[in-house]
Amino acid sequence: MNCCAVSGTNSFFNSQARHYEKYFRKKGLRKEQKYLAEGIQQRGIAQADLLEIGCGVGGLHLRLLQKGAGRATGFDISERMLASARQLSTEMGLAAQTQYWQGDFVALHDNAPAAEITILDKVLCCYADVRELIARSTAKTRRIYAVSYPRDNVFVRNAFRAAILFFKLFRVSFHPFYHSPAEIMKRIMAEGFEQTYERHTGIWIVQVFQRKRA
Ligand SMILES: C[S@@+](CC[C@H](N)C(=O)[O-])C[C@H]1O[C@@H](n2cnc3c(N)ncnc32)[C@H](O)[C@@H]1O
Fold first, then answer.
1. Which atom of ligand 1 is nearest to the CA of 33?
2. What pLDDT digit, counting tens, does each position of 166-205 carry?
3. What's the gap in Å between 37 CA and the centre of ligand 1?
4. For the whole prediction, is pTM greater than 0.85?
5. Which of 43, 82, 135, 192 has its CA 20 to 30 A from that of 12?
6. Looking at domain 3-152+180-211, what is its CATH homologous superfamily?
């Protein structure tokens, strides 16, 4: 991602951080996050280290830590999302088990820690080079790779196309991307993973993959 796109993503999601934090405080995890948690927990999380890329305010990995995961590293481009994540992890008594990195994961991946479980929840559709993001993030994953991204149906495809057009027309600093679900799955599987879980919400596909044994 070029530096303008990174700073556009930073300022757009900075403006959303308060809303994300408020939602988590009031209602907890969203439906697709509950599915991700379910699919991940089915594979076992005891003492596992988590890597959440595009972690937002951190609700999902914080809940998994409460359920028995060991440590979590959260990456996000947005400074304010991470400020909320730090605040929530402190309030929940999980600060000693969390660390946060600000920036584009693809640019920082070299120094990122590897993890047993990697999560990208509604992040692939925020990034132009999905191929690179999948390649870099699967390379850091020892066991479980969990994702949510937009569904493949006419309604969702058109809604994303309309949003992309709207953001471009009104020169919003960030705009979303609609990547082909078939292509996303193909890329994840080509990195040595097999699928273990799938659920849908109105907008999102939620999938969990496990690294194939050699
Ligand atoms: C739609 S939000 C979802 C946040 C969180 N996963 C959730 O569901 O509440 C996408 C987040 O991904 C972050 N993001 C997008 N591309 C990223 C990248 N390449 N590296 C790190 N963070 C990224 C954005 O800054 C934003 O906070």
1. 8
2. 988 888 878 889 999 999 999 999 999 999 999 999 999 9
3. 17
4. yes
5. 135
6. Vaccinia Virus protein VP39 (3.40.50.150)
